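Weekly structure sync, notes
Attendees: PL, DS, HV (note-taker this week)

Item 1: Fe/B12 periplasmic-binding domain-containing protein
DS walked through the input record. Source organism listed as Streptomyces mordarskii. Sequence as pasted into the shared doc:
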Amino acid sequence: MTPRPVGQARARPLPGAATYLPDPLWKELGAVHAGHTVTVDDDPWYLNAGPTAVRGVLRDITGRLGR
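Item 1 (cont.): predicted structure, written out as tokens:
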């Protein structure tokens, strides 16, 4: 990984679900076959680390799995 100044944008965007979902390997995953996958908002799940993002992630988890 090449260091870059704080605030400098990435040279290329990160791949999203549109990149992985059509891939044949995705469809072979056991969790996908069993219907145990869900779509999540990448902002709180992957890009943010603050307390508001954490609350959103916990809300997603408890909503899907129950308390």
